[in-house]
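Render this sequence as a predicted structure.
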Amino acid sequence: MRAGRRERVRVSREPSFFERYRTIILSVAALVVIAVAAGFVFLGAAQPAYACGQVFNPSPTPTVSPGSSTRLGFVEDYMGNTHQASPPFNYLYCPPASGNHFGNNPGVTGPIPPRIYKPDDNVGPPNWVHNLEHGGLVVLYKGDSPGATSAGQLAFKTFYDSFPPSPICKVPKGVLSPVIARFDQMAHPYAALVWGRVLYLDTWDPDAVQRFYATESERLDANGEMVAPPEKLFCNPSPSPSAAAPSSSAAASGSAAPSGSAAPSGSAAPAASPEPSAAPS
């Protein structure tokens, strides 16, 4: 009986494909996940923080002669002033004198510290538009302009060192102004910006920029109420009783240029002066 019993054949189970190559498959999957994540990070870093619809290019260029009664610069269409936490930031015109920008994060994303930013410093409209919103001055130079050279940067330093307090609120240099930075998407080598207004320059003219700042950065209307900047962080003068009859005196408290400023003659209240055309060419 023992000799005639057939031995039961034991069948061994073959491991599945996944079991045989599990280590390799898991390693490859992990590498794919890492590669995809890195790709998203790279694309996010390569994505521009802002986009421009078109270059602001009004014509003709207004005169900047000392005796001119024409207001310096051009009015640029209002593009909003929403505080955003992250890109993208879209601007109809560049350089933008208004528009959405980073929210309150002073000294980091905006308002940014006033100084001379070198050509390779990474700052842009989402940062310095917030300076404009509070009444600051921003000076821009193109990367292929003399402003990007050593001599141009030295000229900016001279300008920065002698920069005055703001015309009405007397905000000192270094709080909001001046921000001097490279920006290439504009029609001229230089531009000076205050909120809602752009002054183009073909050559660096610090006197014209100072006059532009003195007459346009902080302004009162004929009744003595502050009409610029939009965010009145540092002061908001109340209307003066003497401003009740604005036509009676060119030196009423509604003047946008305080005494001693280099405001154009015959233009005590810039809002009443002739406006150059702001239609882009």
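Summary. The two ends are 111 Å apart (CA to CA). Helices lie at 17-20, 22-46, 125-133, 150-161, 206-216.
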